[in-house]
Amino acid sequence: MKMMLRLPALLLLLAAVCGLAKAAVSAVSTPAAAAAAAVGLDLDADGLPDLVEIRFGSDPTKKDTDSDGWDDRAEFDANTDPRDPDVFPIFSLLARDRQQLMGDLLVLRARAFTNGIVITNFVVTTNEAGVGGVPVDTDDDGEPDGCDLDGDGVSDQSGACPEEGGLMTNEVLVTNYVSWQWYFGTNRLDTQTNESLVLHAVRTNEAGLYHLTASLLTSVQTSPPVAVEVLPWRARQRVQQPVGDVVCWGLNEYGQVTVPNTVTQVLAVAAGLGHTAVIRTDGAVAAWGAGDLAQTNVPPGATNLVSLVAGATQTYGLRADGTVVAWGTNDFSQLDLPPDLQGVTAVAAGYFHGAALRDDGTVVCWGDNSQGQCMVPEGLDAVVAVAAGVFHTVALRADGTVRCWGSDAFGQCAVPDDLPEVAAIAAGGNHTVAVLRDGQLVIWGDNSFAQATLPERFGNVVQVAAGYSFTAAVGPDGRVTVFGSDAPAILGVPASLTNAVQIAAGYFHLIAIQGRADTDTDGLDNVFERAGRSDPALWDTDGDTLEDGVEARLGSSPVLADTDGDGLPDRAEIENDFDPQVPGEAPDGFLAVRRAVQLQVFALGRGPYQLQATSDGGSWLDLGDPYEPPA
Question: Which residue of 51, 149, 261, 329 has the lowest C-beta tally within 10 Å?
Answer without folding.
Answer: 261
